[in-house]
Amino acid sequence: MSTDTSPATDQVRFDRRGALGVVVLDRPKAINSLTPEMVRAMRTQLQAWRDDDAVRVVAITGEGEKGLCAGADVVSVRRALVDGDEAGAMAFFAEEYDLDRLIGDYPKPVVAFMDGVTMGGGIGIAGHASLRIATERTKVAMPETKIGFFCDVGGLYLLARTPGEFGTHLALTSDVASGADAVLLGVADVLVDSGSLEEILRGLETGDVPTPAGIGSTDHPAPLEKDRAWIDACYTGDDPVAIVERLRAYRGEREEQAHEAARAIEARSPFAVCVTLEALRRAGRLDSLDAVLDQDLVLARAFCTEPDFREGVRALLVDKDNEPSWRHPSIADVPRGEVTAAFDA
């Protein structure tokens, strides 16, 4: 084994194992949340391996047992915005989305080990890989509406293409899905036992990439399937107010889950919910990950000036009082013009 150290920081390291290049996110106490230094180091190393004929496969893994990556370090982004450094915050988003784009377009196989928490920015670096491996410990989510933000990192490209309205449910509620659910959604390709990950990683050293069916289950029963009826019935259309009304009024099997979803959406940032739904529907009409990431960059600029983003991060991650004061009282109070203006920022 050799180690590539040139672009590394103390937050991410790069190993060479035969024909395999290994990215190891190394902030386990923060569940490997992405910092600007990590993003830049990963981009530099991936660009180097792209042109290195000795590297035939790349793997993305995370240090620690909690998860691959809990997302971007939005506390630092918020701090920059509070300090008036909007340009610095936007530079981070631009670099993060460029990394996601690089992974999605990579000319060599990229294998993402989505063990444990894989959320937000973690979906950006794993969800666009060519082989995405989930386990029984996987927890996937795009939890941005909780913090007054929108589902970014190309996540809406994936959620807009899930079966039925599963993607709409997850995008608006910020709900968490299991590894089996991730395969159902198309966010992961295979479910394996977490105890087999080291063996799979060692097998990649030859430069050969297994088929999903060759290492695990591609049709494991998914908990979300039990909610398909009410999710598909309630989440249709482009009107978030109508969606919540249908969820509240739903009667039938697992109706309490529908009512809980309504309560969850009502607790999120009204502006973030409205923009996320509009962005999701637009992403469904866009024909590439690149186009969705371009849309993400426009929306990120709008949210850098949006008070709900700073307030949501404060309430959930800084003061941790879980009592955000959103700019609008409810989603019904968000003017349609504000929503569409975000796409022109």
Strand and helix layout:
Layout: E1 2-9, E2 12-17, E3 20-25, H1 36-50, E4 57-62, E5 67-69, H2 74-82, H3 86-104, E6 110-114, E7 117-119, H4 121-126, E8 131-135, E9 139-141, H5 155-159, H6 166-173, E10 177-178, H7 179-185, E11 190-192, H8 197-203, H9 212-215, H10 228-234, H11 240-249, H12 255-267, H13 270-285, H14 289-304, H15 307-318, H16 336-341
Parallel strand pairs: 3-4, 4-6, 5-7, 6-8, 7-9, 8-11
Antiparallel strand pairs: 1-2, 2-3, 9-10
Shape: globular
Give the termini separation.
47 Å
Radius of gyration: 20 Å
Q: Unreliable segments (pLDDT under 50, ≥5 consecutive)?
A: 1-6
* Structural class category: alpha/beta
Which range best describes the helical content: under 10%, 10-25%, 25-40%, 40-55%, 55-70% or over 70%? Answer: 40-55%
Strand content: 5-15%
The description of the largest β-sheet is: 7 strands, mixed
Largest beta sheet: strand ordering: 1-2-3-4-6-8-11
Strand count: 11
Mean of residue pLDDT values: 96
Number of continuous helical runs: 16
Order of helices and strands: EEEHEEHHEEHEEHHEHEHHHHHHHHH
Report what the structure shows:
The protein is of the alpha/beta class and 345 residues long. Helices cover 46% and strands 14% of the residues. It has 16 helices and 11 strands. The protein has helices spanning 36-50, 74-82, 86-104, 121-126, 155-159, 166-173, 179-185, 197-203, 212-215, 228-234, 240-249, 255-267, 270-285, 289-304, 307-318, 336-341, and strands spanning 2-9, 12-17, 20-25, 57-62, 67-69, 110-114, 117-119, 131-135, 139-141, 177-178, 190-192. A hairpin with a 2-residue loop joins strand 1 (2-9) and strand 2 (12-17). Helix 2 runs antiparallel to helix 3 and helix 10 packs across helix 11 (240-249). The longest helix is centred in the first third of the chain and has 19 residues, at 86-104. The N and C termini lie far apart (47 Å).
